[in-house]
Amino acid sequence: MNIRNLSLLTGINAETIRSYRIKGLLKPGQKQNGYYNYTTEDYIALIHLRKLRGFSMSLDMIGRYYQTENENELISMIEEEQSELHKQMAQMELELRLLEFEKRHIRQVGENGQNIYLLEAIDEKIDYYNMYNSEYFRSHKDLFPDIYAYTSPTLRITKEILNGECSGKMIPIQAGIGTYRHIIKDNYLPMPPDDCIIIPKTHCLCQIITLSRLDHMNLLTLKPLMDYAKQNNYVFISDTTGYLLRVQIKENQTQFRFRIRAAVEKRD
Q1: Which of 32, 95, 200, 208 has the most crowded CB, counting CB atoms within 10 A?
Q2: Is 37:1 a contact under the CB 8 Å cutoff?
Q3: C-alpha to C-alpha distance for 240 and 153, rounded to whole angstroms
Q4: CATH fit for domain 114-266, picks 1.10.8, 3.20.80, 3.30.300, 3.30.200
Q5: Which residues pair with 266 in a beta bridge?
């Protein structure tokens, strides 16, 4: 049969079948007119090849698989593929946990039903705000996918500002990334450098804010947070950290919606 009929029979794209032939994984006979004639043998070989591709085997590995006569080598290649699939499954499990974490944060904010609230932190938060000029990030660039998988964008406002007087002045802020100490420990990631910001495991006061700039903001945006602290006799004992709930584009402008929090304790 010709390649078009084989494609219709198997559901495999003709270009894909042709690439298998070019790589030597199919061996159809060639007619005098230059066209290839695919036989029952080619059909069966193609079905087996599709099964192996369904196991996520690369074409190079299949080529090796077809050429070896040693059963131990065949088993070794299958085990190699099993190991890769286990890694992918672990990555998918991680992604599912992180998506659940993301959903829980959004739901927590929605269920709270108010702009200011108090929560109990589950662990120390470690934030870093000097990524651009960091030897740490340059020296661990191979870990970037892992580092960023476990982090969230954060927002730093100093405790001195939070404990001061609220007015309409513009204040400096910093955007960075942060994660929890237990995540770094559990996943054997290198600890950030000494100049990272530690947000302790304790009661934290939270506010939801929306910003279009991440280098400065009007202090009046934090008036609900600062007023709540004073009215309830709290003092801020840490800078803020943050969790980026969403990025939204409105009227051609990017907006960032953060849940910020800072550790507090009751005044004496």
Answers
A1: 208
A2: yes
A3: 12
A4: 3.20.80
A5: 234
Q: Is the pTM of this model over 0.70?
A: no
Give yes or no for a contact between 234 and 204, defined as CB atoms under 8 angstroms apart: no
Q: Which residue has the higher pLDDT, 142 or 66?
A: 66
- How does residue 96 score in pLDDT terms, banded at 50, 70 and 90? confident
pLDDT in tens, 221-260: 999 999 999 999 999 999 999 988 889 898 889 999 999 9
Percent of the chain whose pLDDT exceeds 90: 47
| Dihedrals phi, psi of 236, to nearest 5 degrees | -80, 130
Residue corresponding to tokens 């651009």? 132
Q: b vs e for 27-41, b when ≥16 Cβ sit within 10 Å of the residue's Cβ?
A: ebeeeeeeebebeee
Closest CA to 148 of 180, 184, 190, 177: 177
Given a contact cutoff of 8 angstroms between Cβ atoms, the answer to whether 173 and 215 are in contact is yes
Between the CA of residue 132 and those of 129, 135, 138, 177, 210, what are the distances in Å?
Answer: 9, 9, 9, 12, 24
pLDDT confidence of 136, banded at 50, 70, 90? Answer: low
Query: CA 236 to CA 262: how far, in whole Å?
Result: 7
Domain residue extents for the chain: 3-67, 114-266
The residue type of 188 is Y
Determine contact, residues 208/225, Cβ cutoff 8 Å: no
Average pLDDT for residues 179-193, to the nearest whole number? Answer: 75
